[in-house]
TrEMBL record:
Residue windows of the TPR repeats: 369-402
Gene3D superfamilies from the UniProt entry: 2.60.40.790, Tetratricopeptide repeat domain
Name of this protein: Dynein axonemal assembly factor 4
GO cellular component: dynein axonemal particle; extracellular region; neuron projection; nucleus
Compositional bias (Polar residues): 198-208
Biological source species: Pycnonotus jocosus (Red-whiskered bulbul)
Entry's transmembrane regions: none
Pfam families: CS
Protein location: Cell projection, Neuron projection; Dynein axonemal particle; Nucleus
Designated gene of the protein: Dnaaf4
Residue span(s) of domain CS: 3-87
Stretches for region Disordered: 197-217
Amino acid sequence: MPLWLREHRWRQTLTAVYLSLPLRGARATPASIFCSEQYLKVSIPPFLFEAILYAPIDDTNSTAKIGNGNIFFTLYKKEPAMWDSLTLANADKEKLQYLRENAVLKAHEKAKEETEAKKITKQEHKKYALEATMKVEEEERKRIEDLKEKERQKVAKELELWKNQQKDGDKYKSVQKKGELHQEIEPLKERKSEKINKTQIPNEGTSKTRLKSTKGRGSCSIFSQNLKEEQLPAPRAAATIKVNFTPRVFPTALRESRVAEEEEWLHKQAEARRIINSDLSELEDLKEEEKNPDWLKDKGNKMFAMGDYLGAVNAYNLAVRLNNKLPLLYLNRAACHLKLRNLHKAIEDSSKALELLTPPVPDNENARVKAHVRRGTAFCQLELYTEGLQDYEAALKIDPRNKNIEEDAEKIRHLIQGTMQSS
């Protein structure tokens, strides 16, 4: 039961009411005070103060100060007038309840409006901050672009200056070379002129002999060239050289390859292409990617997760027709058949999956466990508990730490014992 605070002092002016409420050793916080237009409540467990005010007040501008073991309220009146009393007299319980609920409802609406206003203000501040940040980034980008442009112009000027210097250097070098050549040619010309002067009046005998010797040399060279041409062999007849290479499908060397495995892989690929290109009515309207067994398997998995077990079975059926060597297709289809209560088909698909999951290796342990469990579940649902127990025990041999399988196997053993005792 709350203890009502009856002791309070109040005074008023034409526009305000001043209320002092003792706390009696209790500790109050701003959250302990609730004030609306005509309802005032102070809840400090176990103390409680509640007042239905005589007239409406301006709860927005009114204040409450906590100090020295008291709460001092300054309540501003909405209409200037003198009150006959602090609280509304002769108010029945229904009216008090209505005023209380109305005050709480208005407080909730006001808090909601304030929250929305704060949210809008926060969004505006974020928008302003974003615009300011974008403006700063734009200015920074422009500054960096200006610096780049200035640097580019500076480098272009330096490059142009260097090119001009190179041109001037080349011109100077060419002029210098021409001067050196001129200096070298002048003494050569002088020497040549001296030689010509010396040999201007030669002897007639020497000139004749020289002419004869040149004639003889020229005729000999002509005959020797004709003889050489006659001695050249005739060109060979055109022919085609054929080089036979070992036919290789794979780019590896023969000593590094496993021919038998490669040929088996090629055979499987050819068989898969033949099946895909065969005249299946289901493939006529499918897209190219929809003819991929892996794509159909993923589609079946999604349908199974959504609970569309018939659609998943259809997807797995088409994937099996495209490639019947994938054990996961049979394993997933067995799970669908279990959901659809097609127990014999579930047993067939689980058995086919186990047949394809050979030889048993660590990589396919998880798939073999699932196949044994699903086949064992189908056997148990057909009340063939002995066969189901065999599959569960086979799964336990593969994964002995699986507690769920161990518990299911124990339940099947109890069922077998119960049926044996009843018989």
